[in-house]
Amino acid sequence: MRKKLLIGLAVCITVFSLSTGVVSAKGKGKDLGDKIFKKMHLALEEKEDLKLSDSQIDQILNLKVKTKKDCIMKKAEIKTLLLDLKVQLMEDNIDMGKVNPIIDKKYGLKKEKAKSLLKAYASFKDILSKEQMDKLKEIYKQKCSMKSYGEKKEMMNKKMMERKHQRMDMPSRY
Fold first, then answer.
1. How far apart are alpha carbons 104 and 74 in whole angstroms?
2. CB neighbours (10 Å) of residue 147?
3. String of DSSP letters for 19-56
């Protein structure tokens, strides 16, 4: 009885952590892909300041689109595997022979995604000259620096008010 309770508790914790993203490779900040895409977008946005040539603009744009498509496909595969895992965990008797390969494949895809993002970032850095990359770093620091505490608090209050108004607009079920 006690053994079944412990196994059930372990399964519940695993399902909860997988569904809430506690077991993720994101870390504290934004996703690695978000940072890379933001830099690519910023480079295209500041093309005059960076003095990008037309071929550099085309290369960055093509790289950004190709990388974004790849990320979308990998995220979809990962979500599909997560659903397969949840189905397996809902069974009365969990077949570890089916669960383990799903977990291995999921984290294998996450590893592939991270590697492809870093490869894209290396390609992006190769497109830009040293001077352009230094200038982009300066622009990135200026535009993406941490906001002051007061600005963060004001932004959060604004978001909370928007959510409150959205809930008020929804019809009641009673």
1. 14
2. 11
3. HHTSS-S--SSS-HHHHHHHHHHHHHHTHHHHT--HHH
Q: For residues 140 and 49, give the distance between their C-alpha atoms in angstroms, rounded to a whole number.
A: 12
Q: How many residues does the chain have?
A: 174
158 vs 169: CA distance, rounded Å: 17
Note the pTM of the prediction, 2 decimals. Answer: 0.63
- The lowest-confidence range among 39-53, 139-153, 160-174 is 160-174
Helix (H) or strand (E) holding 91: none
Contacts 24+ apart (CB under 8 A), 29-32: 32/114, 32/117, 32/118
Identify the three-state secondary structure at position 170.
Answer: coil
Residue 108 vs residue 27, higher pLDDT:
108
CA–CA dist 99, 84 (Å, integer): 9
Residue type present at position 27? G
